[in-house]
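I'm stuck. Please check this protein.
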Amino acid sequence: NDNFGIVNALMTTCHAYTNDQRVLDFPHEDARRARSAGINIIPTTTGAAKAIGLVVPELKGKFHGVAFRVPVADGSIIDLVANLSKDVTVEKVNDALREAAGGDRMGKYLAYTEDPIVSTDIIGDAHSSIVDGGMTMVLDNRMVKVVSWYDNEWGYSSRLIDLCVYVGKKLPVAVG
């Protein structure tokens, strides 16, 4: 958004199944999540699109998305398609993402690769997002597709640790 201005975006997450899902078909309040996680691709909702507006207020209401729970134990991917306010090329988008991943502000959270990776390659990676630069596409100069991987268990746990450290630093220190 800082470099090219996001007008609006649709995102699709292909998310490894979680403990909220069933191993076998079994009752659940969400009929789709009631189906066996290990053998089905399960369309469902995602809170990620709304969460973006909480983290980056200027993007509130500009994102919408869906999730597909897929039969892998770990390793997830986001497919983001955005309309931009400025003309771009694949190279410009990838350069901006690569630069952000190498910077002090985002380097702990964002990684960039052009290696032909798959879901198991990112298991244990603490980054919140690993941009797959080889998958970036641009259509008509202002529509961009960015694909990014994440370890939905380790990456999330890493952010919880960051939060605990942050809160711990804010607590008063007992003396004596």
Remarks:
- The chain has one domain: 6-170.
- The chain has a mean pLDDT of 92.
